Amino acid sequence: MTTNELIEQALAKLDGAGGEVVLDFSSVRRIDPSAIEAMERLAGAADDRAVKVAVRGVHVDVYKVLKLVKLTPRFSFPA
């Protein structure tokens, strides 16, 4: 499954999420611009629905990219 597919699945599940959605990024080593756009859409949709999004298993290089594009404050990163 691609990163974009993972994010699109999370978007589809927001309405029935019950307050939180968890994404497993343990197999994601790189993130491309289209995935960043999808993460921005996910963050916006989650904000609209008052749903928290946790991203687990984030590789340090992916985290750095998310930090550079200022997306890290919009997600939680549990250990």
What distance separates the N and C termini?
23 Å
Using the CA coordinates, give the radius of gyration. Answer: 11 Å
Quantity of strands, as a count: 2
Strand order of the largest sheet: 1-2
Number of helices: 3
SSE order, one letter for each helix or strand: HEHEH
Helix content: 40-55%
What is the average per-residue confidence, as pLDDT, rounded to a whole number?
90
The 3D shape can be described as globular
Work out the strand percent: 5-15%
Poorly predicted spans: none
Sheet with most strands: 2 strands, parallel
Oligomeric form of this entry? single chain
Give the helix/strand class. alpha+beta
What does this structure look like?
The radius of gyration is 11 Å and the shape is globular. The longest helix has 17 residues. With 79 residues, it is of the alpha+beta class. The protein is 47% helix and 13% strand. A two-stranded parallel sheet has the order 1-2.
Quickly list its features.
globular, alpha+beta
Structural topology:
Elements (H helix, E strand, L loop, with lengths): L2 H11 L6 E5 L8 H17 L2 E5 L3 H9 L11
Helix pairs in contact: 1-2
Q: Care to give the gist of this entry?
A:
By secondary structure, the protein is an alpha+beta fold.
